[in-house]
Amino acid sequence: MGDPFLKIDNLSKVYGETHALSDIFLFLHAGELLVVLGPTGAGKTTLLRIIAGLEVPDAGRVVVEGMDMTHCLPAERDVALVFQNFSLYPNKTVRQNLEFPLRAPGRNLSKTEIANRISDTANLLRIAPLLDRPATHLSGGEMQRVAIGRAIVRQPRLFLFDEPLTNLDAKLREVLRVELIRLQRDLGTPMIYVTHDRVEALSMGDRIAVLSEGKILQIGSPEDIYQRPNSPVVARQLGYPPINLIEVHKRADQWFTASNHGIVAADRNAPQRATLGIRPENIFPHGGEIPATIEAVENLGASTILLGTWADRPIHILITGETQWHPGDVIYPSVDPNRVVVWERRNEE
Amino acid sequence: MRGWRWLVIVPYFLLATLPLCWLFLTSLKTQEAAISSTASLIPTTDENIAPGGLKFSATGDAYRKLATPHTGKAHAFFHYLFNSVIIGLLSALASVVLGTGCAYGFSRFRIAGTRDWLFFIFSTRFLPPLAVVVPVLMMYRLFDLPNTHLGLILLYTAFNLSLAVWLMKGFIDEIPRAYEEAALVDGYSPFQAFYKIILPHSATGMAVTAVFCLISAWNEYGFALALNNAEAVTVPVYFAGLQGNIQGIPWPQIAAGVLIFVVPIAVFTVLVRKHLLRGVTFGTIKQ
């Protein structure tokens, strides 16, 4: 692969005392969909706003197709940003909202070209019947469709989506999520999609960048991030129920918990002291030697979550199908040593 | 229960409109009837009515006389009304234009000491304007501004600007930034975003601000008197100057002129009253 489409180079932004972003390095290939995942306040929106040109970074560069865009006006960047709160122009109709970016100075599109683009976009997003409605007379899902329409009607060279589905109800969110993935694949326009929703991150991203407190903790494919998180913080970002984190020390090629239970075999080269990350689906409810007491059983239909106490600490176990266990039962869980993520612990906190 | 409120509304309405009714009656009278020691209240078309009764014969003379210069005055009433209109409208316009620009800057950009600047702007209203009449007069002499329309326009604009900035800032603060940002990303320059997004959304605020500035300039008397004796005399100064007239004070003409003077403002205020209420309560009610 040649030069990346977009390169974020050593970007930092400070608001007063808060380091909104610190030393961000990031790149985006042509046609790629990168999800930036992080909790509220991680700096996700700031990152998008800097790329869009609505904020100026304190340090670092934004390079698009080899050109330094850090200090260009938003209008010069030809990127489209979809806001979390939709931000349709309230005193305009849907059609006027879609026209507005096309009528921007410097675009010089003919009337027929504008009309064609609007009808194409409206058909694509199934908002054609709404075109002459005032933007204020739309449901949340319709508003967000129009907002997405306003972004794609321009045929920009980069899409920036800022939690576009957060304000919608769960059902609509799923429908639009699938539509967005299809849309991005069809258009082939690179996209940065910001979210705090792990399901969106795993299902949408070609790659995921995990952002926390203004720092990128890990970038990789969804499989990478899920199976090989590089820190407990990253591991906790993805997966439901959350990953089991257990502090252990190594003795005789076994990992022992603080309560001196040997729970799983340790690799010969593993560090002496570590935190283990074990996904709930990688713990099996039988085959082990240390007893666990089941405290609650949560039936999810296709799978079941068992909450219990194992080696004196709480644990989540995910099993497929219905369960024969009930609260109060004692099981002997086992763990596949190959599916355990090990992080070395250096200093006692 | 609802009926009871009329007990308050009707007497208050009568009380409030009494001066206007009195003005209207006076404007229909002859000079003699207007200064008669007994009050005649009922206008009739009968021309032969003995003075001193409740009825009087109505005449439109007072309105007709407004078109010709009064004894000892250089111009007719309408000349002074025209001065008031020009000065009022232009100063209101200037206040709104400058106030909107200034308020936009304070509302949208990080400016060092924003709060202090805004307080300073507000503080220009702490002092009664007339306290500075002497320095203003001296400055104006230096620039040949007394007796000019421009002089009063500049002065009223300066006095109203603080109100305009504060009012407009309240309105612009309520326009979500996201609309402008969307316009910027959509390919518009910052000025175009202001022009295409902020201006249409703050039209209400501008109308409200314009009314307040217009009323204030329309009614101003002290500076208009101090700075003028010939060219840019406004209606309030003109009327006051009719005192001590050699023929006595022409009450019917004054009454007729005042009514004409009040009408434009009253009509305008009624037209924008909904917005006015919103404008007055701005900043205290947040959606």
Blueprint (SSEs and pairs):
The complex is a heterodimer of chains A (349) and B (287).
Chain A: E1 6-15, E2 18-28, E3 33-37, H1 44-52, E4 59-64, E5 67-68, E6 79-82, H2 94-102, H3 111-125, H4 140-152, E7 158-162, H5 170-187, E8 191-195, H6 198-204, E9 207-212, E10 215-220, H7 222-227, H8 232-237, E11 244-251, E12 254-257, E13 262-265, E14 273-278, E15 283-284, E16 292-299, E17 303-310, E18 313-320, E19 330-331, E20 334-335, E21 341-344
Parallel strand pairs in A: 3-8, 3-9, 6-7, 7-8
Antiparallel strand pairs in A: 1-2, 1-4, 4-5, 9-10, 11-12, 11-14, 12-13, 14-21, 15-20, 16-17, 16-19, 17-18
Chain B: H1 4-27, H2 31-35, E1 42-44, E2 55-57, H3 61-65, H4 77-108, H5 114-123, H6 133-142, H7 149-173, H8 177-185, H9 190-201, H10 203-219, H11 222-227, H12 235-241, H13 251-271, H14 273-280
Parallel strand pairs in B: 1-2
Structure overview:
The complex is a heterodimer of chains A (about 350) and B (about 290). Chain A is about 25% helix and about 35% strand. Chain A folds into two domains: about 5-235, 3-Layer(aba) Sandwich (Rossmann fold), CATH 3.40.50; about 245-345, Beta Barrel (OB fold (Dihydrolipoamide Acetyltransferase, E2P)). With about 350 residues, chain A is of the alpha+beta class. Chain B has about 290 residues and is mostly helical. Chain B has two domains: about 1-60, no CATH class; about 75-280, Orthogonal Bundle (MetI-like fold), CATH 1.10.3720. The chains are: A alpha+beta (about 350), B mainly alpha (about 290). The interface of A and B includes residues 81, 89, 100 and 107 of A.
